[in-house]
Amino acid sequence: MTQSVDHETVVSRLLSADEILILCHKNPDGDTIGSGTALCLALQKLGKTAAVLCSDPIPAMYAFLPITVFDGSFTPHFVVAVDVAGIQLFGDRNNMPQYAEHVDLCIDHHGSNSGYAYETMLDDHAAATAELLTALIPEMGVEITPDIAACLYTGIATDTGCFRFTNTTAATHRAAAALIEAGADVENLNERLFECRSHARMAAERMALESLEFYYDNRCALICLTWDQIQAAGVAGAELEDLTSLPRSIEGVEVGLTLRQQKDGSYKISVRTGHDTNACNIARRLGGGGHPRAAGCEISGNLDNAKHAILDEVKKELDRSASLNAAES
Amino acid sequence: MTQSVDHETVVSRLLSADEILILCHKNPDGDTIGSGTALCLALQKLGKTAAVLCSDPIPAMYAFLPITVFDGSFTPHFVVAVDVAGIQLFGDRNNMPQYAEHVDLCIDHHGSNSGYAYETMLDDHAAATAELLTALIPEMGVEITPDIAACLYTGIATDTGCFRFTNTTAATHRAAAALIEAGADVENLNERLFECRSHARMAAERMALESLEFYYDNRCALICLTWDQIQAAGVAGAELEDLTSLPRSIEGVEVGLTLRQQKDGSYKISVRTGHDTNACNIARRLGGGGHPRAAGCEISGNLDNAKHAILDEVKKELDRSASLNAAES
């Protein structure tokens, strides 16, 4: 079991360590890379040897961050994981066999953190690990430089959808203010992080919009992508995942459905709902599950069967919600 | 000429006034409505009679704000304009003939403010008029209630594209933090303001993506909408305007073009460029103009002619930028 530690302990551990390896999670996002790079820069400013390691390549959109990738040129004596909630999230550990097994310190904001590290600093009220580090780095006696500010802003902005997601708090905005004052060039960063859509993303959106259908007085919207379309567009995991929020985002839509055909022909269905209906109720009766506003299930058979089955469940849930509302009023 | 006034003077004017009419600008956005409603609530909390007036109807997406619309039930003795940069922006003044001519006080953040009011409090560093009011309302001795916070957050968030646009500063984030602490329900507000796309918007995006073409090694992207398509989709001004940022937002695109056919058959062309090229150079030689990164022109004749003419100018500008870059390196 991990030991829970406070800022003061973390600062003392980092200040007394050297040859520090910083581990990020697999499929790296802006928070794990931004936090890892910011911590690495801060440790280097203190004259320490430090580098960052991730099982997957750094995505092109984060290549502008001044990351020192671990190249084996030193033997790590202290291992810190940033934004990694569980040991399985290190990914394929071929390039870090011994390190991921003995993590000295974990700095994270995921309430689900499994406690795999020897010591853990966890704050699940923080919108991003980078929000924690915005406080921690000055406590290490390191001034936040424009480079460090850019890394931390990247972490916070990407984990909050640019301050749009529900994890955004007053403290998140205060951290952003401090980073802008420290020299984060938000014009440039926001353009890099949010104004650039990949060709694959555009292709995915086009496919989605062309397949858009409405049901039940426009209360339900559905998009459908066949395996062949997905292959032809060259659309990968994250772009497809993002599409699942599209149908629900349309004015007046309470239930948004995304049907994606799998290689074996079956349909993976994502269900997103508004405040009045329960996505899990819809998915559960088809053998799936999830959360009240985001759930999923899988249906084998052809498209007509899949649509028919899921739309039946949507109808039941819309009716249930309508009768509840009628009873209340 | 208007008198420029500071916070203290504005507070004293507002505290000594009563029967206050607050004017918003035409085609009202989140900032003018949010600011007007927040100021109205603050004045009402002080026991004053106040109401808000706009030449256009309040858009449905802002109908949730607790706005007191002026219904003629009192005779205004003090007129305040919020977020209105010039007298022509009051719009059709049929419902406010006498008031817009004699504005006692203007509170605004547009550097272009024409100074039409008797006194003006202007801060063009503020991202939104609502950012100014976040400081001003407590100075009036009024606590920011959750309702006022929701209005002011709406103004700031909409004017900054949810903290994405270049007008966003550290002060903007600090204002947002204060409003969240005062009770602005950002989960609910962000969903209302940013997660909801109109059917017309979806139709416009679909049209745009279906017409998307690339030129010059994908350095130029072009979308084209005919008059018939625009009519069929029922797409109005703001949704069409928003589309003009789409082609430039695609990975690797330096010049984004949007061609919109007008009723008379001519094409209105919007040019958006990245850091390396000048939109105004492109538009100017076709009789248009604008800014370095956003410009426009109009070309009569058929679509092939319009495309040919604008793409020729794009080519020249891309070549000019390439030779500049070559000379520098």
Automatic annotation (TrEMBL), chains A, B:
Q: Name one GO molecular function term.
A: nucleic acid binding
Report what the protein is called.
DHHA1 domain protein
- Per its UniProt record, what Pfam families does this chain match? DHH, DHHA1
- The DDH domain extends over 20-156
Domain of life from the UniProt record: Bacteria
Source organism per entry reads Subdoligranulum variabile DSM 15176
Q: Where is the DHHA1 domain?
A: 234-315
- Family annotation (SUPFAM superfamilies): DHH phosphoesterases
